[in-house]
């Protein structure tokens, strides 16, 4: 449990919220409980987030921004498109609390313009792979490949975070332990490993 003494209360609330979501899930999040954990008045966190929904929305925004920055970095480096998928899985593993709320619209404020902008910018990075993985193909065909790749990596990340990848003994069957290596092996079956992502 975190203990807040001074400094950036907004950051302290976010950090404690991320701990709670990672350990207990989004449903366990409570601004009042976080305020008690940090030793501040129960109204103090509301000044920054307004409500539990506002706090979850802030977590989602931060998650999209972290993911978009990493995807943009890889595209600037003209990394193979497969590496964007690997980065997606690595992001989920490194930021499980962010991942747990980012794609749960019922938990978030649908009127938040910053959330919409952050999500759109992240999805734009994923869509930018269309030209790289299927040059000369129709937009619909290329988009279908991107959809398949995204579905694969999102599913793999979910299996990892829920412990199902471990329970199914897939690591033993593949002879791989690192989630990034597993993502590369699975993603290579889509034939995207040899293509580079377009630069911005």
Characterization of the model:
The chain is an all-alpha fold and 200 residues long. The protein folds into 2 domains: 9-49, Orthogonal Bundle (Arc Repressor Mutant, subunit A), CATH 1.10.10; 63-188, Tetracycline Repressor, domain 2. The protein has 12 helices and no strands. It has helices spanning 9-24, 31-38, 44-49, 52-76, 81-94, 96-102, 113-127, 129-133, 139-161, 164-167, 170-174, 179-188. The longest helix is centred in the N-terminal third of the chain and has 25 residues, at 52-76. It is globular. It starts with 8 loop residues before the first helix and ends in a 12-residue tail after the last helix. The model has no long low-confidence stretch (mean pLDDT 88).
Secondary structure: elements and pairs:
Blueprint: H1 9-24, H2 31-38, H3 44-49, H4 52-76, H5 81-94, H6 96-102, H7 113-127, H8 129-133, H9 139-161, H10 164-167, H11 170-174, H12 179-188
Helix pairs in contact: 1-2, 1-6, 4-5, 4-6, 4-7, 5-6, 5-9, 5-12, 9-12
Unreliable stretches (pLDDT < 50, length at least 5) are none
Mean pLDDT: 88
Report the CATH architecture of the largest domain.
Orthogonal Bundle
β-strand percent reads under 5%
Query: How far from one another are the termini?
Result: 41 Å
Multimerization state: single chain
Query: How many H/I helices?
Result: 12
**In the CATH scheme, what's the topology name of the largest domain?**
Tetracycline Repressor, domain 2
Structural class: mainly alpha
Query: Gyration radius, to the nearest Å?
Result: 19 Å
What's the total number of strands? 0
Sketch the topology as an H/E string, one letter per element: HHHHHHHHHHHH
What's the CATH class of the largest domain, please? Mainly Alpha
């Amino acid at each position: 449990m975190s203990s807040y003494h001074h400094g950036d209360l907004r950051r302290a609330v976010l950090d404690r919220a991320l701990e709670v979501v990672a350990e207990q899930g989004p449903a366990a999040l409570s601004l009042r409980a976080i305020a008690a954990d940090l030793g501040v008045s129960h109204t103090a966190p509301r000044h920054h987030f307004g409500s539990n929904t506002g706090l979850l929305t802030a977590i989602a925004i931060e998650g999209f921004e972290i993911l978009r920055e990493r995807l943009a970095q890889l595209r600037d480096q003209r990394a193979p498109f497969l590496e964007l998928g690997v980065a997606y899985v690595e992001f989920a593993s490194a930021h499980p609390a962010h991942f747990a709320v980012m794609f749960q619209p019922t938990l978030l404020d649908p009127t938040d313009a910053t959330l919409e902008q952050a999500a759109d910018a992240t999805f734009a990075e994923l869509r930018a792979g269309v030209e790289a993985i299927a040059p000369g193909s129709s937009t619909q065909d290329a988009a279908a490949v991107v959809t398949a790749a995204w579905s694969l990596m999102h599913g793999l990340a979910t299996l990892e975070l829920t412990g199902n990848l471990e329970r199914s003994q897939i690591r033993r069957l593949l002879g791989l332990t690192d989630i990034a290596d597993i993502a590369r092996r699975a993603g290579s079956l889509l034939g995207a490993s040899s293509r580079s992502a377009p630069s911005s």
